[in-house]
Amino acid sequence: MRRKDLDHSLIQNCVMEALMQLMKTKNYTEISVGEIAARAGVHRATFYRHFTSKDDVLRCCLSRMLKEAEEDRDLLHTDFSAFIRPVFQTFYENRTQMLFLNRAGLSGQLLDVLKDYFQFDAIPDIMTENPAEEADTGCGAGKVRVSTNAEKYRMAYRIGGIYSCLLLWFSHDMQETPEEMTKIAVSM
């Protein structure tokens, strides 16, 4: 069945669902864009009007999973446990897909998705110009640009830690519960 005249969101949903279905029975690297389009009921050209590649589809799938799990954004700064728990819960509920993704060597895509979830790129880079201290030679070094954005570094550290925990969790076949993973993430 071909899907004509559907809006962008519906076509994206069909394509993402098609990829997830195919990943249950086939290695990701062996799945072609043509197969995804056929399973979704759209032409290849339609696929490319909505996605740039199957990796793009995968990123969208992961982003949508987290977006649906997202609760109050303010919890990130006030109650990290309540903010991060839905991430672990969502991945746990999609355990089969997450383990397939990991086994296919595609878990690296999670890092970009986590950066989006934590709105990392929205944190501004704050640079100031400070006079440099004189070097041991006695020569003035002039002004240097100094980063004063500890918040961006803190967030990068936190995202990297969660990503590493996810990889370890996947390698353990996600045996720990989302609650246990939340406690681990919060304790870091």
Q: Keyphrases for this structure?
A:
188 residues, mainly alpha, two-stranded antiparallel ribbon, 10 helices, globular
Write up what this structure looks like:
By secondary structure, the protein is mainly α. It folds into 2 domains: 1-51, Arc Repressor Mutant, subunit A (Orthogonal Bundle), CATH 1.10.10; 71-188, no CATH class. The chain has helices at 8-25, 33-40, 44-50, 54-69, 75-78, 80-93, 95-103, 109-117, 150-171, 178-187, and strands at 127-131, 143-147. Helix 1 crosses helix 4 (54-69), helix 4 (54-69) runs parallel beside helix 8 and helix 6 runs antiparallel to helix 10 (178-187). The relative contact order is 0.11.
Summarize the structure.
The protein folds into two domains: 1-51, Arc Repressor Mutant, subunit A; 71-188, no CATH class. Helix content is 62%, strand content 5%.
Q: If helices are DSSP runs of H or I spanning 4 or more residues, what is the number of helices?
A: 10
Gyration radius, to the nearest Å? Answer: 21 Å
Oligomeric nature of the chains: single chain
**Order of SSEs:** HHHHHHHHEEHH
Describe the strand arrangement of the main beta sheet, using strand numbers.
Answer: 1-2
Described by strand count, sense and barrel closure, the largest sheet is: 2 strands, antiparallel
Give start-end ranges of low-pLDDT stretches.
133-137
The averaged pLDDT comes out at: 84
Which structural class do you get from the secondary structure elements?
Answer: mainly alpha
Instruction: Give the strand content.
Output: 5-15%
Between the first and last Cα atoms, what is the distance in angstroms? 50 Å
Please tally the β strands and state the result: 2
Helix content: 55-70%
Q: How many structural domains does the protein architecture include?
A: 2
Q: What global shape is seen?
A: globular
